[in-house]
Structures are given as structure tokens and as C-alpha cells.
Design goal:
single chain, eight-stranded mixed β-sheet, three-stranded antiparallel β-sheet, disordered N terminus
Length: 246
């Protein structure tokens, strides 16, 4: 059974709700149902809804389950939380993951907003991402690495102060020297400013190690060391929904 009680966090952060699920199947469908419910509510009162998705190895099953939801997907715009400096047809890009794991079944008709495209430079890609972000997202789905990074916000980034305090929704990121960035140090990422403008935020994590990392981050309260803490802040005062299973 999910623990839905708000957990204590540093005074500078909003609360979060920790949902501990019995297994991966329950985790998958609980997260997908939660996302679909927020999109459905938005589509009742607005002509369109906007969904931001993350890459990584964790969320694929949730995206496949979500794509089966009977929503009016033609009225949903799908963007990215972050992107590696790769073309959308590169198998290592987050756009590729979204295309193959989410834009299928009912969700195949959703309108996708890739950040990169042939002939667009990095500055242009960031400008395009910020133009899309003028309309606030309904829901954003985040992941977390074992180093505590989320989106493309990494501990130890050389320009962490600039990125973490930027007044823009998206910025270019230079993550050279950050192990979590692997082979792709040049990136575009949602900033803490952009994150806090999204009322409904989900963090998808699995395994004992990541739960321990999240708990250590909460205890620390240091967003530069644990960038995942940026997902807690909300202009709406809404809690981050953390979905976890072993």
C-alpha cells in the first residue's frame, strides 16, 4: 500500500508524498494512472494540456502504460525535461526514447516538441525550448541517478550556480567531468525555476539504492550536492509525488 502522507523536508522546499509500491507492475500502472488523471483534469478545463517527459532507463514501462490511456491525445503537447546534444533520431537521445516508448497506441497522435533538429545550434535549441515553456506544463515526469542528479542537473557541474539560479525555464548545460553525464556532457535542461512552475511533478525511482539516495538528499537539503531536491520546490505549494518500488 502506498504511503501517501507528506514527509518532512527542509523549510525551503515544498513537501513530497512517497508512494511505496509492492512491485514493478503496480509501480508502473500507479504512475501511469496518476499522470493520465492530471492530463484528463486539465483537458476538461483547457483546450490543450502539456506533458514533459524524462529519458533514462527507468520510465519506459510507465510511458508504454500511459500510451494506452483513453485520453484525447490530439490535444496533448509532449515536451522534454532535458535532452542530450543529439539529434532526435539518435538512439541515445531522450527524443528517441519518447518516440519508441510513448508515442504509440492512443498517444501516437500527441504533438511532440523535440528540442534539437538538424541545422539548429545549441542557442537556438535553448530558445525554442523556452518558447514552448511559455505555456506551463500540466505534468512533468522526473528520474534520478544514483549520484542524485535529475534532468541534466548534475552534482559538481562547473557552472552549477548559473544553472540552478537561472530565471529561464531551460538553459544549456556543460557537464564535463560529471560521471552521471556519461558520454554526453553537452545538454539542455529544465532549471529549478522551470520545475517550480509545474504544479504536478512525479519522480520515478526503483531499488533500495535510489531510495537511500533520495532519503540522504532530503536529510542534506543541499541542492548543489543533490540536484534532485530542485523537484521539490513548487510555486503552487503542491507536493512532489515520488513513486518507488524495490
Amino acid at each position: 500500500m502506498a504511503d501517501r502522507s507528506p514527509q518532512p523536508v527542509p523549510e525551503t522546499a515544498a513537501t513530497y508524498t512517497f508512494h511505496a509500491h509492492a512491485n514493478r507492475e503496480v509501480w508502473t500502472w500507479a504512475a501511469a494512472v496518476s499522470i493520465a488523471a492530471e492530463l484528463r483534469r486539465e483537458l476538461i478545463v483547457q483546450p490543450r494540456a502539456r506533458l514533459l517527459l524524462s529519458g533514462g532507463g527507468t520510465p519506459g514501462p510507465v510511458y508504454r502504460a500511459l500510451s494506452q490511456a483513453p485520453l484525447d491525445w490530439e490535444r496533448v503537447d509532449v515536451g522534454l525535461v532535458d535532452e542530450r546534444w543529439l539529434l532526435p533520431d539518435d538512439p541515445d537521445s531522450n527524443a528517441w526514447l519518447v518516440h519508441h516508448e510513448f508515442l504509440r497506441d492512443h498517444a501516437a497522435v500527441a504533438r511532440f516538441e523535440p528540442m534539437t533538429q538538424a541545422g539548429r545550434n545549441l542557442e537556438g535549441a535553448v530558445a525554442t525550448a523556452n518558447a514552448h515553456a511559455r505555456r506551463e506544463a500540466t505534468v512533468a515526469v522526473f528520474g534520478m541517478g544514483e549520484d542524485g542528479h535529475t534532468a541534466s542537473l548534475f552534482p559538481g557541474m562547473a557552472d552549477a550556480e548559473r544553472v540552478l539560479t537561472s530565471p529561464r525555464d531551460y538553459v544549456a548545460v556543460d557537464a564535463h567531468g560529471c560521471p552521471g553525464a556519461q558520454r554526453w556532457p553537452r545538454r539542455i535542461s529544465l532549471t529549478p525555476h522551470g520545475m517550480k512552475r509545474i504544479a504536478h511533478r512525479l519522480l520515478l525511482i526503483q531499488g533500495a539504492r535510489k531510495r537511500a539516495v533520495f532519503e540522504e538528499a532530503i536529510a542534506s537539503g543541499d541542492v548543489q550536492r543533490w540536484p534532485v531536491l530542485a523537484t521539490l520546490e513548487s510555486s503552487y505549494g503542491t507536493p512532489l509525488d515520488v513513486h518507488w518500488c524495490a
